[in-house]
Design goal:
This protein has a 5-stranded antiparallel β-sheet with strand order 2-3-1-4-5, with helices on both faces. The protein has 171 residues and is of the alpha+beta class. Helix 1 crosses helix 3 and helix 4 crosses helix 5. It folds into 2 domains: 124 residues, Ribosomal protein L10, N-terminal RNA-binding domain (Alpha-Beta Plaits, 2-Layer Sandwich); 45 residues.
């Protein structure tokens, strides 16, 4: 790799570190190509991405970035899992790590906050952006359905009373 390519790669990694809501650093020694393809596919489905980069170049790209604290994790064979959604990459990494013993999560960063192994696990258990939006939409719709039920309730009560009175009159 020549100097220009390295410069381009450092710029690309810098963009990743700046624009990602979360970055998870893991060791991947011993994973097969098929395992890595599976990880990439799962990450893509969740709106995350996976990147293997030279640690030295990644450390250069981290200089001056808010997530500079993850530089200490960049030793050995490391892979970066990242996403704009602050939860997606952590969820993907945790799920993949459960089924692959060779995938070891070291830590990560969520904005300026450094995450250790337990921090990544905690972030992965949080609801994703889409889940939160669905919950909020459900909460916003609940009052309307309650009002509709309250408006319709007196009519159904009157109908059942009339039905009871009619049954008594017929008997």
């Amino acid at each position: 790799m020549d100097r220009a390519q390295k410069g381009h790669l450092v710029d690309e990694l810098g963009q990743i570190f700046e624009s990602s809501g979360v970055v998870v650093v893991s060791h991947y020694a011993g994973l097969t190509v098929a395992n890595m393809q599976d990880l990439r596919a799962k990450a893509s489905e969740a709106g995350a991405a996976v990147r293997v980069a030279k640690n030295r170049l990644a450390k250069i790209a981290l200089e001056g970035k808010s997530c500079e604290s993850i530089a200490g994790f960049l030793t050995g064979m490391t892979v970066l899992t990242y996403s704009e959604d602050p939860v997606a990459a952590a969820k993907v990494a945790e799920e993949f790590g459960k089924t692959n013993d060779n995938f070891v999560i070291l830590g990560g960063a969520m904005g300026e906050n450094a995450l250790d192994r337990a921090g990544v696990t905690a972030v992965s258990k949080m609801p994703s952006r889409d889940e939160l939006i669905a919950t909020i939409a459900g909460m916003l719709g609940a009052p309307a359905s309650n009002i509709a039920g309250a408006i319709g309730a007196p009519a159904s009560n009157i109908a059942s009373i009339l039905s009871t009175v009619e049954d008594k009159a017929a008997a």
